[in-house]
Amino acid sequence: MKTAEDCRSAAFLRLRAAEAATDPKTSACFRRTAELWSALALQIEQDPHTVRQRNAVLQKSHQTEPHEATAHAAQAADILRQRLQLSDSNEPRS
Question: Who contacts 87 (Cβ-Cβ below 8 Å, separation ≥6)?
């Protein structure tokens, strides 16, 4: 089963591929795929089962500092959100 973090990583990779693509159609396809991965991550986060599972893990955790990997995933998610908002316009980016 994919986690929201897995989906965000997949979305981030697709965004990088979109930026590297020289063909506009290929770039658009990668951007759309990134948006779908991001939407799936959101669905996973909002799923009641996932929320219950996450809450159970947080209750068991005695750590006060976030894991480094989680911090990096959050940064990647923020970058992804910013880029997806920019990709909503149909104007080509320079």
Answer: 18, 31, 35, 93
End-to-end CA, the chain: 37
- Decide: helix, strand or coil at residue 88: coil
What's 65's DSSP letter?
S
Torsion of CA 62, 51, 12, 34, to 10 degrees: 180
Prediction pTM value:
0.55
pLDDT, tens digit, 9 for 90 and up, residues 9-36: 999 999 999 999 999 999 999 999 999 9
In angstroms, rounded to a whole number, what is the distance separating the alpha carbons of residues 6 and 85? 20
Extended beta strands in the chain, E state: none
Residue carrying the six token digits 């990096």? 72
Largest CA distance in the chain: 49
